[in-house]
């Protein structure tokens, strides 16, 4: 998703009073763009006093990235994001979302709250269709965790991303980028990295999650010492899960942030100048992004998905076998004439053919 704002679409005025700027009559488009560019530059603070959750990163070309570490169910994180964007007037805002989760940017809090709590059969079917059986079921379990937190706090997830989207729309020329790896890739790589025992253990833990959570607990997640302790526990119990869900996405996010921080063209002569970028990510990703910032990164490697495992094939075969069994029983109840017609139908033949194991 790439949102660009221009002079025709957005009224420009002081962030404090919300008044609309008035351009002198008779300006050409190029002159109006230059005035707008200079207006934004005058608002941009050179050395702003920013929240403690903001980390500054630079590129060899002189671009500046302000990385806002957030807790995903936090009102103060929303304030941190708004404060940072208003202060630095960025060229690009990058958020920890992918195209599969972009709908949360335009939904209101009430709808999101309802959606987060409501896990129904349609969501289960959609998750399985999108990610496969094992990855889809694991996504549903994680949605259950999100629904548990939502119910405890009465707050929909992703408020900081919606705040970033709203504030970016107020900044002239600002583009809005989705910076995260596609979630189906993350789930498939995570499931493939776990043993059968680890999958069962993780699913069991997620199914019976019931610990109470308060807003104070969420705010503690922004304390780096608590964060490091939590990450250490996660690494110890599920090292493969940490690698695929956290470490690999650190690499991907560092890559997209560096892409966003390329020099931009300034009017009137399209001169290349260093960019100003605001990144909005969960605070757990900040240390990894910092570590990868100056490294050579290979994102193609972490975008690949291994072919289905033997266990996954067995699950699919068992499901197809159940369908064939029900079909056979229906044939028996319907009589031999109907049975012959059904068994010779193209759909039935395709189902039976696909149930055969592929050659090794």
TrEMBL record:
It comes from Denticeps clupeoides. InterPro entries: TraB/PrgY/GumN_fam, TraB_PrgY-like. Residues 1-23 are annotated as: Disordered. This is TraB domain-containing protein. PANTHER family: PHEROMONE SHUTDOWN PROTEIN, TRAB DOMAIN-CONTAINING PROTEIN. Pfam families: TraB_PrgY_gumN.
